[in-house]
Specification:
Blueprint (H helix, E strand, L loop, with lengths): L8 H20 L2 E2 L6 E2 L2 H12 L1 H18 L5 H14 L3 H4 L8 H31 L3 H32 L12
Antiparallel strand pairs: 1-2
Helix pairs in contact: 1-2, 1-3, 2-3, 2-4, 2-7, 3-4, 4-6, 6-7
Amino acid sequence: MENKKLVSVKTVVAIGIGAAIMFVLMRFVAIPSGIPNTNLNLAPAIVAVFAAIFGPIAGLFIAFIGHTLTDLTWGGVWWSWVIADALFGLLAGLLWKLYRIERGEFDVKACVIFNIVQIVANAIAWIGVAPVLDILIYQEPADKVFLQGLVAGSLNATVVLVLGSLLAFGYSKTRVKAGSLKEEK
């Protein structure tokens, strides 16, 4: 019987690198949005692209670890947002094989699918899960947390749409397409 690994060494390394990049971006490259405790940052693009390349498990753990480390350096973990970020990473990577980034075949059609998935994932995570958990866990006022979620989800979706798409196209161009190498005679 064949022994298949649930997570490859390559994926574990990607999780470590992705979480580290996410931490640095969230901690040191965050721009206040004008809504309390809600920032524009580039980390969602990293989560989405890593999830699109390495799959949903990588996306989930990159977001969970990266966001948790960031919150720890600010004085306390805000679990509702950590969970929402992890869910975003998981959902963003669900259709990773359709994107064909690793095969060097990320095209306009794959980019459209990637962005539909990430927009839906952002909406679920930030407009649905994060505010509800804020209310249930922290007894936060509904109007405040739904506004924060709407702003966070919109900013994140925009960052992924622009930066994430560019990163996915760029990385895909560095990959060799299957069948593109010919044997010399």
